[in-house]
Amino acid sequence: MKLSVSVLLFLSLFVSFLFTIRADTKSTDSCSSNEAVSSLVPFYSSSFHCLSAWSSQSFILRYARTDTNKWSYVLSAPDTNAYVGIGFSHDGDMEESSAMVGWFDNSSKGVIKQYYLGDMESSACPPDQGNLTLVKNSTLIAMHSSTIYLAFEVITDQPTPYLIYAVGHPGDLPSSNYYLDEHHDRATAKFDANSGIINGAGSSSGFTKARKHSLLVILGWGLLIPIGAMVARYFKSHDHPHWFYGHVSIQMVGFALGLAGIVIGFDLDSSGVDRYDTHKALGIVVLVLGCLQAMALLARPVSTNKLRKYWNVLHQQHRQIGHRLWNRQHFLRPLHCR
Question: What is the C-alpha to C-alpha distance for residues 233 and 142, in angstroms, rounded to an integer?
């Protein structure tokens, strides 16, 4: 009974994590409602194409070729107290692309800037840089009915074949230096500007580095390793050694998943993570204890060896310390919401 209750508890926590990993948003804007954008954007006209650019985040894209080599864009998205952006990529990758990003700060002042996305790190994405040749005085950001509108015009013969959309964390606005923290969610779409066909605006949420880190660590060290420990605790009284093989197998898979998550975690910066230094330090300690447990398996004495009882004590103490640190780690930052 105790085993069943414990397993159900861990499963319920994991399912709760999956259901809270993202929140749906709704926008008041749509392609059938153009009154707001026509009153807010001076260069907007009825000749603009309108697309549901990213349905899961309610992004709407309006665009038109307004001159031989001039393209005009209006992106609308729900106001979640976060930045929103649209990037232009030649190959579908965010790296080495250029993007227009906008937000309203805490004083309700609108900010819209071009960024060069050199890498995944914030420091590699400087503001007021990029490969988009913007029409002078064409950039505009506005708010209407809890919807943000980003408008701008670009000089180019042909737009890039891929568009990238991104939204930041709610409440996590850029600082005064305008550098961006890692996005909360993003999507990439293949885009044919001439035909107005857009394909594959699929969300990449759940596949950012931070979420890979969270998911792997929770699956490995938060779910499988405790289950493996319970297998040893509740079934070791059985004479058949199947419990031991099951215990070792579950622990090794859990350790491998957690190790992969930690490796990914080393590549993350402190943005969006509470008590980052403590979180990282505890993660390293838990990793060391996990490695010691894995190494201890190789040095496990046979049951008749007098050293076996000392090995058992050490094994149990490492497990208990590791579990306590994991619980502390979990409550410090249960989710990476990047």
Answer: 61
As a whole number of angstroms, the distance between CA 232 and CA 245 comes to: 10
Q: Is residue 309 part of a domain?
A: yes
CB 294 within 8 A of CB 236: no
- Reported as a single tens digit per residue, the pLDDT across 149-158 is 999 999 999 9
User: Any idea what the CATH number is for the domain that residue 136 is in?
Assistant: 2.60.40.1210
User: What gap in Å lies between CA 63 and CA 45, rounded to an integer?
Assistant: 10
Domain that residue 150 falls in? 35-203
- 235: closest CA among 244, 225, 227, 226? 244
What is the full DSSP assignment across 200-255? EEEE-TT-SHHHHHHHHHIIIIIIIHHHHHHHHHHHTTSSSTHHHHHHHHHHHHHH
Radius of gyration of the chain (CA): 26
Tokens of 9: 């508890």
Sign of CA dihedral 178, 183, 189, 190: positive
**pLDDT single digits (tens) 57-102:** 999 999 999 998 999 999 999 999 999 999 999 998 888 999 999 9
**The domain boundary residue, chosen from 203, 220, 250:** 203
Starting at the edge strand that comes first in sequence, how are the strands of the sheet with 162-167 ordered?
110-117, 97-104, 84-89, 162-167, 185-192, 197-203
100 bridge partner residues: 86, 114
